């Protein structure tokens, strides 16, 4: 286990504290070789950029990552949510967060930027997206703006053909509400109505980067 500066314990692979969000002093896997620097004028990935609903085709995703770590924490948070909201526990949101490489064409040259690093099939954000890493907080808010539950991102895994890096998260035991807002790290809230979630079988797919 790794302790944050405030004394909270987190799984060894965590980069950020799941309780307070503090960055943890852990060694990260060696990044994969980065492509040549992009030509002048190419915008750098921002650590303030917002996540958006994913638009990548399903065929580009590898839906067989092995989910590791965070199980005990999820169970504990689920129990707390049930105690705090005894009328809830009706819904579970399953989500993904994908990071894609930025590619484009500028001044007669094609370019790409490395937005994540990979090692042995696992991955995490790099550069402007370095806050997207295992253990970072995923917060779900009610329709009145109250925090319902906080869960961690699971370990990231390379998508098929190494086109991106995908994290998963599970939000259990949510009470009934007309809408829910999801916030990953500091990347802004995305709001879904209950009807939208029902039509998507209570799944959300978020992404950042890419063309």
Short description:
Helix content is 9%, strand content 36%.
Query: What is the straight-line distance between the termini?
Result: 38 Å
Unreliable residue stretches: 57-69
- How many strand units? 15
What is the approximate shape?
globular
Task: Output the number of helix runs.
Answer: 2
Task: Tell me the count of domains.
Answer: 1
Mean pLDDT: 79
Largest sheet: 7 strands, mixed
Strand order of the largest sheet: 3-15-4-12-11-8-7
What's the alpha carbon Rg, rounded to whole Å?
A: 18 Å
- What structural class results from the helix and strand content? mainly beta
Helix content: under 10%
List the helices and strands in order: EEEHEEEEEEEEEEEHE
């Amino acid at each position: 286990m790794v302790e944050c500066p405030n004394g909270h314990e987190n799984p060894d692979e965590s980069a950020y504290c799941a309780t307070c969000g503090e960055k943890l002093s852990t060694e990260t896997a060696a990044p994969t070789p980065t492509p040549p620097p992009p030509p002048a004028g190419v915008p750098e990935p921002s650590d303030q950029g917002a996540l958006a609903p994913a638009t990548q085709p399903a065929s580009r995703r590898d839906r067989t990552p092995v989910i590791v770590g965070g199980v005990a924490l999820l169970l504990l948070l689920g129990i707390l949510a049930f105690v705090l909201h005894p009328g809830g526990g009706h819904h579970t949101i399953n989500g993904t967060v994908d990071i894609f490489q930025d590619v484009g064409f500028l001044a007669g040259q094609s370019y790409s930027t490395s937005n994540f690093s990979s090692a042995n099939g696992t991955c995490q954000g790099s550069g402007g997206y370095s806050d997207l890493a295992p253990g970072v907080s995923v917060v779900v808010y009610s329709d009145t703006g109250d925090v319902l539950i906080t869960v961690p991102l699971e370990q990231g895994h390379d998508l098929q053909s190494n086109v991106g890096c995908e994290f998963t998260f599970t939000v259990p035991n949510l009470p009934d509400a007309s809408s829910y807002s999801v916030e990953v790290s500091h990347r802004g809230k995305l709001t879904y109505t209950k009807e939208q979630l029902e039509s998507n079988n209570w799944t959300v797919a978020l992404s950042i980067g890419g063309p």
